[in-house]
Amino acid sequence: MLKIPTHAAKLVLLLLACNSYLFSFADESTNFIHLSAIVDRQQTKVTNVVEDSLGYLWLNSNSGLLRYDGYDYRQYSFNEIFGDNVSFAKILGISKDSDGDIWCVSQKGAISKLMPSGKFESQYSNYTKLPEHLELESLSIGKSRLWMGSNFGTAIGQSLKDSTSVRFDIYSSNETITSIAEGKNDIVWFSTNKGRIFKGNTSTMDLYELKGPFNNPFNTVILTTDKNGNLWIGTDLTGFYFYDLKTETYEHFHNKAKASHFVPTNMVIRIFRDSKGLIWLGTDGGGLYQIKPKTKHVKIYNYSKSNKFSLQSNSVIGIGETNNNDIWVFTNYGNINILPSESSTVGYYSGNISGVPTRILSILKCQNGNLWAGTDGEGLTIINKKGNAVKQFVAKTNTANGLTGNYIQAMVEDRNQNKWIGTYLNGLSFYNSKTSTFSSIKVLNSKGQLGSDIRSLFIDNSDQVWVGSNIGISLFSLSGNQLAFFPRNKNGLKGNITEVFLQDENDQIWIGMSEGGLFLFKEGKTIEDSSFIPYQLIDSKNPAENSIFHGAADYHGHLYFTNSYSRLLKFNIKEKKTVPINGFSNEEIHGVTAILVSDSSNLWVSRSNGISHLDLNAKQDYLYTWKNGTIKGAFLSGSATKDKNNLFYFGGVDGLNFFDPKQMKTSQKQFQLRVNQIKVVNRDANKIIPEQLSEGIEHLKSIELNHKQTSFSFQFSVINDHLDPNYFYAYRLKGFDKNWIITENQRIATYTSIPYGDYTFEVKAGTNRNLWDIEPRSIQVTVLSPLWQRWWAYVIYSLALIIALFFIIRYSIMWARLKKKLLLEEWQNEKNNELYAMKMNFFAKMSHEIQTPLTLIMAPIESMIERAEGNLLLKQRLNVIHNNAKRLSRIALELMTVRNRELGKLQLRANQNNISKHCESIALSFTEQARFKHIDFVYESKQDDIILWYDKEKLEHVIYNLLSNAFKFTPREGQIQFKIKSNCEHFFLSISDSGIGIDEENLKHIFNMFYQSKEGRAVGGTGIGLALSKELMTLHRGKIMVDSTLNQGTKFTLILPLGNKHLKTEEIINNKPLEAIRQDDSLNKEDLNTPSVNSNSKIHLLIVEDNYEMLLLLKDTFSPFYNVFTAENGKEALAILHETTPDIIISDIMMPIMDGITLCKQLKNTKTMRHIPIILLTARNTTQSKLEGLKYGAIEYINKPFNVKELIFKVNNILESHKNLILKYRTELLTQSEAPQVESPDEKFIESVLIELEKNLVNPDFKLEDLSEALSMSYSNIYRRFQSITNKTLVDFMRCLRLKKAAFILVKHNYTISEIAFNVGFNDPKYFSRCFKKEYNYTPKEFKQLANSDGGADFLKHHDIIKE
User: Fold this and answer.
1) Model confidence at 1206, in pLDDT bands (50, 70, 90)?
2) Using CA atoms, how far apart are residues 1122 and 1195, in angstroms rounded to an integer?
3) What per-residue confidence (pLDDT) applies to 556?
4) What pLDDT score does 12 carry?
5) Phi, psi of 1252 (to 5 degrees)
6) Number of Cβ atoms within 10 Å of the Cβ of 1013
7) CA 1098 → CA 844, 1093, 1094, 1123, 1284, distances in Å?
8) Ordered DSSP codes for 784-825
9) Which one, of 1245, 1328, 1253, 1335, lies nearest residue 1294 by Cα?
10) In this prediction, what percent of the chain has a pLDDT beyond 70?
11) Is the pLDDT of residue 1274 over 80?
């Protein structure tokens, strides 16, 4: 026997004791779920959580109150919770009462309650005005009261039903109430920060202090009660206590001897009792503790750096519970740790002695109760009955004990408790339970090849060990002897490697092969003669469909397998075929990695995202995910086993889970889908339609929107799944969307410009895209049409239509009766319009027809008056004829003025004139009539010169009309006064008579068109004169006034403004200077009887007139002076123009075939004729006709009847002006490089000729005929037109031009005579000299000498070679 030294033995015993102690207090292997509260992209620290009836979580944090729906955190401001009238303070806490109502309290005592609408309402204001240094420090909620502890030694119990409250005061102003808890029988307990606990009775209001081992003025105490009313007390100095009310004794959880009752820390800072009655302790650095009040058993949860599923910090600052009993643990630095309620039924092992989550490839539950976990690369881990990892075998380390491989793929235990271990690449290992060592067993084929990849192991009822390897199937005895070997692809066996062995209730051995399918072992007479019968699971040529990875038997005639597509298959042993698994969707029988059978009706399968319970009878799939306590990572293929106690084990990438199927809940949590936010026209609906959301958006059944709110959005979510809300959503607006819109991450449905009508918004959610297993929600949406499109509006429209139809029918009869009358009236109107048009046309034609004979009358009369200077009586008679002709002309002009007024074409043409002189001349024309009727006619002017802007013809018409009326209605021996005057602003003209006068009735209408009084009709008249006079005065911006007394006389007064500011620009036709007007008036009248016209037979005059007598008059008038051609219309004139080029044309406007305006157009568009000046004669005295004539080239416009002498003067002046233009070009020396800037057609023509001549001035080969091509005109036309304009031939002009150029060069430059001759286009210098002498009377040499002696420039100016 080996002897061990005494000191060594003691050391071993000490290590064993320490090991026993450490494992006794190892933390619980539980998967915590971790979250973070992110607000404004920053993590915030949370201390408490409660869940409302809808499923929202409300968290108290450093950032205030938060609402969490599983997706987003919504921060509530202080004013949203307590209102605008409460001063700001930190939130003390939130709590939920037994009715599910949530209460929120501030440190200053403001209390608010969460209403069903989702909004907070302030409840009581008793404690909202605490002094600045006084605050509330603790909060607890009981059955009927909200308890608040202060920092001034007072505990306040506010009733949850009314405003009443109770108070307990310990009369210690600097002592803080740290915790409050209700007990039984109206008892309330509260603790302080000075080591004291008090007991109060709310019925008797008695209060006394509880003495205990925790009493210490420096010890902060917190407490809670259990369901029996006993106290659980935590301190920050002396640890954790239990106080039994019956025995009035304390139990201190600080006794290490009682391991299950030991809390190895003193700093207890949080204490919480959950809905199951469990007590939870949060410590500062000591982790989290759970105590069962009945057994006082303690569980500890600590932070482990190597375990990512452990508590994230050992400093616990808050503990809370949600509605489904999940425990939320809040640790320092803002971490949230969630312990799912089902984690108590699902166990967890990390698979590693260090606690680091490890990939588990295989699991074995031993006969001695230990659990062996085969890992993926980290060897074997042994977990004892208490759940502690006590040993780990790792190959190639000092803990290997002979283990050769760390990838453990399969494990079985024989009846001797020895273990058979299958590894990857390291073959088969055998563990001897007696020696606790491993040894290798060689797996060989007939060729001696070693099997290294051991995928599956199985011990049948005959204690034979079946080994599936990469070389085939081997059969061993328990002693390790290989009994048989079945190679792949022989004896009916096919496939790569055996994945699973199964033995059914008939002791038949079934083999599942990778890429081979299912095989039944048929034993022969000898083991070597045995064979395998293949069965195809799926009728498919795809090997993967029949590739088996794991399986299990239900021992009721069925085998279950999963293939390489992770599909679950059910095989009927009796029928030898795969049968369907009825009642499950395609998604539910896929994604399977391992299978365990509870009984013939219940399967448990692991998946990549959890563990499923398939209830074959109920046809239900209950999925348990990491939210229910399973590992968060995927489960691995084939990693599953169950023990004799029917505990199921599944391994995955982060360890393994185990559970008792009977303890697993089959009723899963009902998740609630809610619409939790609505926006209307991109604004929160609570601000747009608050009255419709009074009960909260989550309870909303319908909304009504007006016609301006056709754009809206809905936000929705599964709000009571706070751990992993990974759902698919589908929504539609029924009545608008034809199909469901499916989304995964987008939880907002937005609609814009929705037509008016009724719709239903529907939303549904599901755990899979095609599995909508959460109750859907719907909201009725009504988009109201505008008021004018409502049903009652259409009723009104219908009534209005009926009434309208009634009146239409009623009046249709009347219309039928009136139709004939209307047709007659329409016919009459047409006739009236035709008559009106005929009248206006008659006025125009009559005026024209009258003016032409008047011209023929007045022209000879004027000539006769001039020659009757010696015969006074004859001259007097001729003047009578002349005056009446002029009167007749004015009547015709009056007709045209009336026509223009009717057509809206009456226009003012004002210029500046001396009205005094004008009125004087008018007065003189009436002196003969006054003498004849023996009327005293007086003309009076206060000023000799009155300058006025007015239309001379129109104002003369007004004055003539008034004077004519005065003479008409004034009897013999009567009196007429004609007076004019002016002031600084206006001109005044009055005409008064002593005639018959006008009565008041007629005085009202005298300015109406065609109105005549009885007296007026008696003396004759048209009723036009005064009406037209008023129109003409209005056109002048003047006034005409009348004052009359019956049988005494009448006075007319004209008032006109001085200056021209009242006139429009287009109404002013010239702006002659005032001095010029006065000078013209002051000049002595010259003898204008005979115009001074030089007779020149070379000048051609063309007269175009359709009236033969007028044509003869004009021809006779101009024949003594010019060579006259005549034509009766424009067409004949054009024919004459093609034969000869006249110097001037006089044309009438109104002619047959072609009128005067058309003739102007034709001449303007003809290049060879556009230079000919045109004078138009017309009786159409309108501005529009004048402008039209001037527009198309006429340079003068003379109205009929005209003064012949005036016409002669104008013709002569135009020709003289034309002659002066010619002289200008004859005397101008074109030495400059540019031609003069001209505008008229003649000037443009001359300019074109000069430019071409100057270009070719030095070209001796240039011919004048070349101008034809350059000017696009025939040479004959160019020659003729140039001569008519300049009175000089082209040849002479070209020679003159060259000689002027030569004279300039001769004086200014030092060239020889020959050089100068060649420079100006002469080939022969002698010929040049002869021409030069002929032009300047000097030879070139003499010319140069004289120029040099006379100063050069002056000499050139004298000979008109250069300009002054």
Assistant:
1) confident
2) 19
3) 94
4) 37
5) -70, -40
6) 18
7) 39, 14, 11, 7, 10
8) PPPGGGSHHHHHHHHHHHHHHHHHHHHHHHHHHHHHHHHHHH
9) 1253
10) 87
11) no
Looking at the structure, do residues 1063 and 919 belong to the same domain, yes or no?
yes
In angstroms, the CA 272 to CA 223 distance is 8
Same domain assignment for residues 1174 and 1293: no
**1149 Ramachandran zone, left/alpha/beta (phi>0; psi -120 to 50):** alpha
Where a domain ends, among 789, 814, 846?
Answer: 789
Question: Does the pLDDT at position 776 exceed 50?
Answer: yes
Separation of alpha carbons 60 and 1009, rounded Å: 97
- Do both 1029 and 1075 map to the same domain? yes
Is the per-residue pLDDT at 10 higher than 70? no
Q: Tell whether 571 is covered by a domain.
A: yes
- Which single residue is written with the structure tokens 């009106």? 836
Q: What is the rounded CA–CA span in Å between residue 1191 and residue 1172?
A: 15
pLDDT of res. 18: 38
Helical packing angle, 1290-1308 and 1340-1349, nearest 10°:
50
pLDDT of 1233: 35
Q: Which two tokens stand for residue 939?
A: 């003309």
Mean pLDDT of all residues belonging to the chain: 85
Q: Identify whether residues 995 and 1070 lie together within a single domain.
A: yes
Q: What is the pLDDT of residue 1340?
A: 85
* 77-98 pLDDT per residue, tens: 999 999 888 888 899 999 999 9
What's the angle, vertex CA 825, arms to CA 824 and CA 826, rounded to 5? 90
**Which residue, 353, 251, 356, is CA-closest to 293?**
251
pLDDT for 125 equals 63
Encode pLDDT of 1128-1184 as tens digits. 888 989 888 888 888 899 998 888 888 888 888 888 888 777 778 899 887 665 556
How far apart, in Å, are the Cα atoms of 1186 and each of 1157, 1175, 1210?
10, 11, 17
The secondary structure element, H or E, covering residue 1352 is none
Q: 479 and 561 share a domain?
A: yes
Q: Domain check: are 1297 and 1216 in the same one?
A: no
Residue 692 counted as domain residue = yes
Whether 556 and 636 map to the same domain: the answer is yes
Secondary structure, 3-state, 230-247: CEEEEECCCCEEEEECCC
pLDDT digit string, tens, across residues 921-970 = 888 878 877 887 888 989 988 787 889 999 888 888 889 889 888 888 88
* For range 863-880, the mean pLDDT: 70
Query: How do residues 597-650 score in pLDDT, each as one tens digit?
Result: 999 999 999 998 899 999 999 999 888 888 888 888 899 999 999 999 999 999
Whether the Cβ atoms of residue 371 and residue 397 lie closer than 8 Å to each other: no
Q: The tokens of 518 are what?
A: 């299912």
CATH code assigned at 740: 2.60.40.10
* Alpha-carbon span 297 to 294, nearest angstrom: 8
List all residues 6 or more positions away from 1077 whose beta carbon is below 8 Å from its beta carbon. 912, 913, 914, 947
Q: Would residue 619 be called left, alpha or beta, if left means φ above 0 and alpha means ψ between -120 and 50 degrees? A: left
- Give the tokens for residue 952: 């001379």
Distance between terminal CA atoms of the chain? 156
Closest CA to 665 of 196, 917, 344: 344
Task: Evaluate whether residue 378 is within a structural domain.
Answer: no
- Domain of 437? 351-358+386-661
Q: Beta partners for 1101?
A: 1124, 1144
Q: What is the predicted pLDDT for the residue at 260?
A: 63
Residue 773 lies in a domain: yes
Quick one: 691 and 762 in the same domain? yes
The SS3 call for residue 189 is strand
Number of domains in the chain: 5
Tokens of 1205: 């002498």
Q: How far is residue 408's CA from residue 380's CA, in Å, rounded to a whole number? A: 7
